[in-house]
Amino acid sequence: xxxxxxxxxxxxxxxxxxxxxxxxxxxxxxxxxxxxxxxxxxxxxxxxxxxxxxxxxxxxxxxxxxxxxxxxxxxxxxxxxxxxxxxxxxxxxxxxxxxxxxxxxxxxxxxxxxxxxxxxxxxxxxxxxxxxxxxxxxxxxxxxxxxxxxxxxxxxxxxxxxxxxxxxxxxxxxxxxxxxxxxxxxxxxxxxxxxxxxxxxxxxxxxxxxxxxxxxxxxxxxxxxxxxxxxxxxxxxxxxxxxxxxxxxxxxxxxxxxxxxxxxxxxxxxxxxxxxxxxxxxxxxxxxxxxxxxxxxxxxxxxxxxxxxxxxxxxxxxxxxxxxxxxxxxxxxxxxxxxxxxxxxxxxxxxxxxxxxxxxxxxxxxxxxxxxxxxxxxxxxxxxxxxxxxxxxxxxxxxxxxxxxxxxxxxxxxxxxxxxxxxxxxxxxxxxxxxxxxxxxxxxxxxxxxxxxxxxxxxxxxxxxxxxxxxxxxxxxxxxxxxxxxxxxxxxxxxxxxxxxxxxxxxxxxxxxxxxxxxxxxxxxxxxxxxxxxxxxxxxxxxxxxxxxxxxxxxxxxxxxxxxxxxxxxxxxxxxxxxxxxxxxxxxxxxxxxxxxxxxxx
Length: 602
Prior knowledge:
Blueprint: H1 2-38, H2 43-80, H3 83-131, H4 135-145, H5 157-197, E1 200-204, E2 207-211, H6 214-234, H7 237-260, H8 262-267, H9 271-323, H10 329-346, H11 348-375, E3 381-384, E4 389-399, E5 405-415, E6 419-423, H12 430-438, E7 444-450, E8 454-457, E9 466-467, H13 468-473, H14 483-492, E10 505-506, H15 508-511, H16 514-528, E11 532-536, H17 544-560, E12 564-568, H18 572-575, E13 580-586, E14 595-600
Parallel strand pairs: 3-7, 6-12, 6-13, 8-11, 11-12
Antiparallel strand pairs: 1-2, 4-5, 4-7, 9-10, 13-14
């Protein structure tokens, strides 16, 4: 028997220790997310805002104390039919109510302003971290490499930046101010309740007992039981909220993909497949939401019963003293009001549990997102190449997301005057090596030196919507180039029909054909005139004549700049514009890498 008791005690102790450790971890996470704003360049403004909101919250509690005193005087006047006091207290109520309204309006207004500025600062910080050093690209690759393992790499960064930061800032302020209000209300009203509730006298086994401040002890007992039951009933809400946010974001992401690739889907007649995929994802959203509302229903059953019972509970307990004549109607209402404030303060956990569950899920998502910024750091040591060098690698290793090694211990160098063609069988990793040379591939190691004035041309370039001049100048700001240069670049890239449409706004990635998009990307190169050009199947959608014309202009450009051109291409005609050739050759099974890079005659 003693052994069983000891085991149970130990288990309970471990459970409490685990819960306490989890609470401490949550507090540290919230502080880690909040502290940077209050230590930032806006620290004095943010701290001043917060202090003002705290002051308004404390003033509201003080007004509640005054209202509690007013209740006693007003209802005593009614019971005693004391008309002068009745009118006096009505006048007093008018200015108390006016003060309460002013406080409520400005507390809400300043709270919303504070949340807006805090959200703005956090959003700017997170966007900066996400966009810095191609983290946005590395995170996507790392997420797919880990098969979406929860906690390893974050899903849907757009949702975390747009929605989770909004939820975190608003929930953190509302919950913290709610907790402050509860603590101060408890401190303010527990003394009042103690003094007005009187003692509870009873006899037991021939002895008389008296419990002073009986209503205070009843409030503590009532709320303690309620908080414990709320925790156990509402515990499933935390993981369900986390999962709901993830599934909603996945569904929205698929909708955006359909919009982004609308033309390709339409050409493939892929509506049915996309409809099934969207229905599948939305089904998961609804399935988890159904579990969530069922858990919420269970919690609502209890909290509703708990709240309604709290309305009549103080009257039931204090009724014997009232009917015995020990207290008057005003004191009864004062007891009820003070009990309600104490009970409300002690029930903060009960009333806020649903919000706390959602807030904790949001905090976990933001914490994981922030941690991923550091995990996405490149493993390739990149540096600027010396003058006359386009690219130089030492001991370069390139792997696939799944871990397979494409290249190992590879040395590459191209410099002024070089025109290099990179070739190899399909699937040999040419584009992956291209990304490694650009310094954006996260699964690369070794040392990379890249020319400062370099420009990379992918097979499918990003073309933003909006005015054509913006799409042509991208990523430089609007106004970086005169109209004459923009028009000349379009003509040189075989797009003379667009030269007169610089101010036309359109969805250019949808409007232009694949070949026109590639020519627009080459127009950017001809406009910006970089010294080092890297092209990955940049003319694959063009006819041979257009391809030859544009390659002639690219080679002339790098020759004028004493630069170099490194290309990936399959067509034999492209080889004529290159003086060197790098070939990816398959290695025997069991080799350290799948391929090796060899230089062949052009």
